[in-house]
């Protein structure tokens, strides 16, 4: 996982110094994603964000052990409820806090697996977005959002919807 993260940072940093990277990405995304943004920047951003979020949600569902994640989340809920009941006892609170952290650490490797498949395309998409919106004069989405904030907000909304519909834990 660490190597994939390093590789994605290296690719992002070589975007301008190794033209074949940016040229290749532009050759693929200009005629596809660029067409949506050229039609209407807000509509295009909505469609592109929905597609990216749907793909990452599907990968998350099928590349993770959903049963184990569900069990861990249920255990975390129980621990959180117990923590509310023992707020006055620092010792019990600390013990439950430790258990909560253990559950989080148990879930982390399971949830990180899909990131290995999506981080490099995600970084390339973000570099392309930066180039596209800079060349377009940084138009505002919905009248006041930059592309980054629009992507972030739209992806949170779509992720919430897709996770519920696809029952992703």
Give an overview in words.
The chain has seven helices and no strands. The chain is mainly α and 169 residues long. The chain has one domain. Helix 2 crosses helix 6 and helix 4 crosses helix 6. The longest helix is centred in the middle third of the chain and has 46 residues. The model has no long low-confidence stretch (mean pLDDT 91).
Short description:
The protein has helices spanning 2-13, 19-29, 33-39, 41-63, 66-85, 90-135, 147-166. It has 169 residues and is mostly helical.
Q: Helix and strand succession?
A: HHHHHHH
Helix content: over 70%
Radius of gyration: 20 Å
What would you call the shape? elongated
Largest sheet descriptor: none
Q: How many β strands by DSSP?
A: 0
Q: Which structural class best describes the helix and strand composition?
A: mainly alpha
Q: Quaternary arrangement of the chains shown?
A: single chain
Number of domains: 1
Number of continuous helical runs: 7
Q: Give the distance, in angstroms, between the N- and C-terminal Cα atoms.
A: 21 Å
Beta-strand percent range: under 5%
- The overall average pLDDT, rounded, is 91
Runs in which pLDDT lies below 50 for 5 or more consecutive residues are none
């Amino acid at each position: 996982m660490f190597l994939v993260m390093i590789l994605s940072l290296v690719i992002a940093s070589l975007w301008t110094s190794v033209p074949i990277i940016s040229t290749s990405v532009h050759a693929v995304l200009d005629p596809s994603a660029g067409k949506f943004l050229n039609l209407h920047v807000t509509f295009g951003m909505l469609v592109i964000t929905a597609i990216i979020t749907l793909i990452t949600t599907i990968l998350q569902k099928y590349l993770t052990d959903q049963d184990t994640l569900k069990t861990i989340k249920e255990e975390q809920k129980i621990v959180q409820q117990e923590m509310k009941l023992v707020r006055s006892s620092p010792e019990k609170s600390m013990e439950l806090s430790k258990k909560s952290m253990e559950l989080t650490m148990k879930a982390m490797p399971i949830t990180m697996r899909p990131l290995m498949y999506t981080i490099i395309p995600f970084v390339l998409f973000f570099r392309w977005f930066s180039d596209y919106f800079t060349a377009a004069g940084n138009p505002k989405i919905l009248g006041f959002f930059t592309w980054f904030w629009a992507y972030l907000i739209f992806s949170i909304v779509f992720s919430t919807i897709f996770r519920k519909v696809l029952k992703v834990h």
